[in-house]
Amino acid sequence: MVRNGSVESPSPRPRIHQTHPHDTPLFQSTVSQSNLRRFNYWILVFRLSAFCFSLSSAVFMLTTNAAHDDAVDSPRWYHFGAFRFVIAANSIVALYSLFEIGASVWEIYSGCTVFPEFSQVWFDFGHDQVFAYLLLSAGSTGTELARQLRGVDTCRVHNAFCIQSDIALSLGFVGFLSVLVSSLLSGYRVEIKAQLDKMLAQFV
Amino acid sequence: MVRNGSVESPSPRPRIHQTHPHDTPLFQSTVSQSNLRRFNYWILVFRLSAFCFSLSSAVFMLTTNAAHDDAVDSPRWYHFGAFRFVIAANSIVALYSLFEIGASVWEIYSGCTVFPEFSQVWFDFGHDQVFAYLLLSAGSTGTELARQLRGVDTCRVHNAFCIQSDIALSLGFVGFLSVLVSSLLSGYRVEIKAQLDKMLAQFV
User: Fold this and answer.
1) What whole-number distance in Å separates Cα of residue A128 and Cα of residue A93?
2) What is the pLDDT of residues A118-130, one digit of tens each?
3) Residue B141 and residue A143: Cβ atoms within 8 Å?
4) In angstroms, rounded to a whole number, what is the distance separating the alpha carbons of residues A49 and B73?
5) A 154-173 residues inside an 8 A Cβ radius of B
6) Annotated domain spans of chain B
7) Could you report the per-residue pLDDT of B128-178, keeping only the tens digit for each?
8) What is d(CA B51, CA B94) in angstroms, rounded to the nearest whole number?
9) Selected residue of B11, B134, B140 to mutate for chain A interface (largest A Cβ count, 10 A)
10) Taking the model in full, what pTM does it have?
C-alpha cells in the first residue's frame, strides 16, 4: 500500500512553520504552530493571575493577627485546621504558578520547553487539574469554618479577624478560577501538541 | 497542489469500520472505532459506581435522624447548611448519573448517541467536570462541619449521628472519585471522536 503524503507530496520536508491554513489542506483545521503560540500567551496571563491571587490569599490569611488586638486570647490562623489548609494550598499553588510562569516565559522566548515537550504538556495539565481541586477543597473547607465562626462569639468579639479571613478566602476562590482556566487551556494544548506531532509523523 | 490521500489512495471509501491498526497506517495510532466502544463500557462502569455511591451518600445523610434517639433536641441533617449541601450535591449527581447510564446503555445497544454526537461528548465532558467540582466542594464543606461538631458537645451526646454523617461523607468522596475518572475518560472520548471525524473528513 502506498503511504500517502510522503511520496507524492511536492515538498516532503515538514512544513509546520507555515501558518496559513491553506498550506496544509490535509488537516482542514485552524490548529497550527501560531495557534499554539497564542495559547502560550493566554496561559501565561492566567498563570500570572493564579500566582497573584493565591499569593495574596495566603498573605492575607497569614496576617489576620496583625489587626488591632494583640491580646493573648485573640484568634490566630494557626488555631484553625481549615485556615492552615487554606494557607498551605494557596502557598503551594503560588510556588507552582511561579515555576510555570518561568517555564512559559522560557518557552515564549526560546521556543522550546523546559522538560521534553511531551512530558511538559502532560505535566502542566495534570498539575493544573490536581491544584484546581486542591484550591477548591481548601476554599470550601475555609468557607464552612468561617460560617461556623459567625455562629459563635469569635466574630462578634474579633470582627476584623473574620473580615480578613473572608477576604483571603475570596482571593483564594479567584485563584481557583484562574487555575481552572489554565487547566482547560493546557488540556487544549495537549491536544494541539498531539496534532502537531501527527503532522510531523506524516511528513517525515 | 495535490491533495494527498483522496486522489492516489487505492480505496477512496471510508474504512473506519476496520479495526485492525495496520489497515490505517496513515494515522499510526491505535485510536479506532473499537477503542471507542471499549471506552464506552468503562465509562458505563464508572457511571454506575458514581450513581451507587452518590445515591447511598444522600440516603445515609437523609436517614441520620432515624437512629435510637428521637428526642426533640437531637441534631438533624436539615439543621446544618453543609449537610444540606452534601445531600443536594449527591442527589444531583445521582440523577445525572442515572441519565448518563441510560444514555450509555442506549449508545452501546443502538450504536448512536442520544443527542447529536458532537453535542453529546461535550455535554458529558462539561457536566462531568462541573459535577466533580461540585461533589468535592460539598465533601470538603461537610468534612469541615463534621470536624467542628467533634469539638462541641454534639458528638459526645449523639455519637450515632456523627458516625452516620462520616459514613455519608466517605461515600460522597468515593462518588467524587468515580465522577473524576468518568470526566477523564469522557475527556479522552472527545479526543477520540475528534480523530474519527478527521478520518472521515479525509476519506470522503
Assistant:
1) 9
2) 888 889 999 999 9
3) yes
4) 48
5) none
6) 32-62+75-203
7) 999 999 999 999 999 999 998 888 877 888 888 889 999 999 999 999 999
8) 5
9) B140
10) 0.79
